[in-house]
Amino acid sequence: xxxxxxxxxxxxxxxxxxxxxxxxxxxxxxxxxxxxxxxxxxxxxxxxxxxxxxxxxxxxxxxxx
Length: 65
Description:
There is one protein chain. The chain has 65 residues and is mainly alpha-helical. It contains 3 helices and no strands. The mean pLDDT is 96.
C-alpha cells in the first residue's frame, strides 16, 4: 500500500457515511411514493416492492401495517 493507512481509513469511512446518507434519502423518498401510490390504488404493495427493489414487508412497515 502506497498511501498512509490512516488516510485510506478516513477516506473509506467518509465514503461509507456519504453512501449511507444517500441510501436513507432514497428510502425516505420511496416511502413517500409508496404511501401515495398504494393509498390511491395505483399499485399493489407487492408490485411497488418489486419496482422499488425492496421486500413487501418493508413496504407494509412503511404503510404502518
